[in-house]
Amino acid sequence: MAERNISNKELAVLTGMNARSISRLKVRRHFTRIDESTLNALCKALKCQPGDLLVYEEDKPDSKEK
């Protein structure tokens, strides 16, 4: 968004999503799931690939499991 100078409101209009949902996506660091339609809308609006938005990080082992 910063590279394209797009605000939350502008992205909400382009994607058809709620501006509050856009804000939540920006703030969260960990997602349990993201809908294909949401990812598609974001990529289309931002003219990017999913890899430009997501980074894979391996799960950290639970400290209780040894």
TrEMBL record:
Pfam families: HTH_26. Transmembrane segments: none annotated. InterPro entries: Cro/C1-type_HTH, Lambda_DNA-bd_dom_sf. It comes from Dendronalium phyllosphericum CENA369. GO terms for molecular function: DNA binding. Residues 1-59 form the HTH cro/C1-type domain. This is Helix-turn-helix transcriptional regulator. It comes from the Bacteria.
